[in-house]
Design brief:
By secondary structure, the chain is α/β, with parallel strands linked by helices. Helix content is about 35%, strand content about 20%. The longest helix has 19 residues. It is globular, with a radius of gyration of 17 Å. Bound molecules: thiamine diphosphate, iron/sulfur cluster and magnesium ion (MG). The site of iron/sulfur cluster has 12 residues, from helix 8.
Length: about 240
């Protein structure tokens, strides 16, 4: 029998800890495929977040370092500056990147660090029990907004990619989504392009935001979560290249 689909070598054969329908596993696969296609496995170093993807190094078979919540851009800065030949990527959730580490990412982007950031926007703090994130949309029910997020009380959802795109230190910012196969393919292209920029020595920070389902804390089936991304989340976070 002919094999038509198989695990890419940089993705480890390891049982998943993610909930059914979670987007993190899809994102991991796209990153692993990219690393294999670019032939950079022996010189890539990843930075794992402190969110549901805290164990990303159990799946992506490159050297990875675990850093404190939100601090990935600072650690990535040191790693890239001391090892300019290495390909450095951080993998960060929306709580990690847009809340606790908001200052870190803004300043790394402003400095034009030559790193690649994969930003997983699932509109909640998944790991800690589904609390509101900066990216939680208006009226979305979370553990800390049981009546839905209200602008007057919790402020508006934060479009961090748009903010980063205006900084001169960023060279490529794109928002993609993991809600169906066509969009997963687009996400793959964007991730690959971001890594390629770094491989080619481009001067600045590249970031790919991925709208990613969290069926558990959206209180939806995996199928409904995919629909909700398309119908609701993309209204607040329009897809496409920002820079
Ligand atoms: C400095 C710091 N603050 C808070 C926490 C607790 N904490 C761990 S994961 C997390 C939320 C993660 O949410 P997100 O980054 O969106 O990742 P997700 O689980 O949704 O993928 C929080 C608040 C922590 N570990 N360190
Ligand atoms: S809580 Fe959400 S983000 Fe975390 S593993 Fe489950 S579905 Fe994924
Ligand atoms: Mg999150």
């Amino acid at each position: 029998m002919k094999t038509v689909f198989k695990r890419t070598p940089t993705l480890k054969d390891f049982p998943t800890h993610y909930c059914p329908g979670c987007g993190h596993g899809i994102a991991h696969r796209l990153i692993a495929e990219t690393i294999d296609e670019l032939g950079i496995r022996d010189r890539t170093i990843g930075i794992a977040p402190v969110g549901c993807a805290v164990l990303a190094y159990n799946y992506i078979d490159v050297d990875m370092v675990e850093v404190a919540h939100g601090r990935a851009p600072a650690v990535a800065t040191g790693m890239k500056r001391t090892n300019p030949d290495k390909i450095i990527f951080s993998y960060q959730g929306d709580g990690d990147l847009a809340s606790i580490g908001a200052g870190e990412i803004l300043h790394a982007a402003h400095r034009g660090e030559r790193i690649t950031v994969i930003f997983i926007n699932n509109a909640v703090y998944g790991m800690t029990g589904g609390q509101m994130a900066p990216t939680t949309v208006l009226n979305q029910i979370t553990a800390t907004t049981p009546k839905g997020r209200k602008a007057a009380e919790q402020g508006y959802p934060m479009q961090i990619s748009e903010l980063l795109a205006i900084l001169p230190g960023t060279i490529y910012i794109e928002r993609c989504s993991l809600h169906n196969p066509a969009h997963i393919q687009k996400s793959k292209k964007a991730i690959k392009y971001a890594f390629e920029l770094q491989v080619n020595g481009a001067e600045g920070l590249s970031l790919v935001e991925l709208l990613s389902p969290c069926p558990t804390y959206w209180r939806m089936t995996p199928a409904k979560a995919m629909e909700w991304i398309e119908k609701e989340l993309t209204k607040v976070f329009p897809l496409g290249r920002l820079k």
